[in-house]
């Protein structure tokens, strides 16, 4: 049995996923709410957390939803096309990579957490919901979004190995990518300078 059930469709959906991921929804959402460019304030990250710091919950929730949706939709399409788990995982990674190194913004993007959330819900919903619960617990206890994201995504390979083992490679790669994207946050946390809520 081929690992890629339809290589042409897989490549097409990977390309579409990367292009969708390359749309940083924090920017149009901030323009719609007449907020400053999130890349120029706070952590400089074009994501829901930074949008919250500048505009509160409504624009942050919209950013989170749209960034998650652009990860969920391509993977859902791959699932509907009956592509293999490997193909779906490749589509998911392309969506997250698009958010991190977006074609439309000179390859300077965000951390990829919300997009990974959406992609994970489409591919491995049980694992992803457990990671979301871990994120919420850490966030409730320490009120630091970056810490919650790192703890949750590092838990991903362990939980997926136990619950949805076919998706272990995806969560392993996501953990590496997202931790690397949070390297500056890790430095600030070590120095006690990471902003909380």
Care to describe what's here?
With 197 residues, the protein is mainly alpha-helical. Helices cover 72% and strands 0% of the residues. It is built from ten helices and no strands. The longest helix is centred in the middle third of the chain and has 24 residues, at 57-80.
Strand content: under 5%
Q: Which sequence of SSEs, written as H and E, runs from N to C?
A: HHHHHHHHHH
The low-confidence parts are none
* E-strand count: 0
Helix content, binned percent: over 70%
Could you give the topology of this structure?
Elements: H1 7-21, H2 26-32, H3 48-55, H4 57-80, H5 85-100, H6 113-123, H7 125-142, H8 145-163, H9 168-181, H10 183-191
List keywords for this structure.
197 residues; mainly alpha; 10 helices; 0% strand
Structure, briefly:
With 197 residues, this protein is mostly helical. It is built from 10 helices and no strands. The longest helix is centred in the middle third of the chain and has 24 residues, at 57-80.
């Amino acid at each position: 049995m081929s690992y890629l059930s339809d290589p042409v469709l897989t490549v097409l959906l990977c390309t579409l996923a990367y292009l969708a991921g390359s749309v940083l929804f924090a920017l149009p959402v901030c323009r719609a709410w007449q907020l400053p460019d999130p890349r120029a304030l706070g952590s400089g990250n074009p994501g829901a957390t930074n949008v919250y710091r500048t505009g509160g919950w409504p624009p942050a929730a919209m950013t989170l939803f749209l960034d998650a949706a652009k990860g969920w939709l391509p993977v859902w399409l791959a699932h509907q096309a009956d592509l293999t788990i490997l193909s779906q995982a490749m589509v998911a990674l392309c969506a997250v990579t698009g958010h991190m190194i977006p074609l439309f913004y000179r390859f300077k993007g965000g951390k990829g957490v919300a997009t990974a959330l959406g992609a994970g819900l489409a591919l491995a919903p049980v694992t992803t919901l457990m990671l979301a619960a871990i994120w919420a617990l850490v966030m409730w206890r320490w009120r630091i979004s970056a810490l919650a994201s790192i703890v949750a995504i590092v838990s991903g390979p362990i939980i997926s190995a136990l619950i949805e083992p076919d998706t272990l490679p995806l969560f392993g790669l996501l953990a590496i990518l997202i931790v690397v994207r949070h390297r500056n946050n890790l430095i600030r946390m070590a120095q006690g300078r990471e902003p909380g809520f």
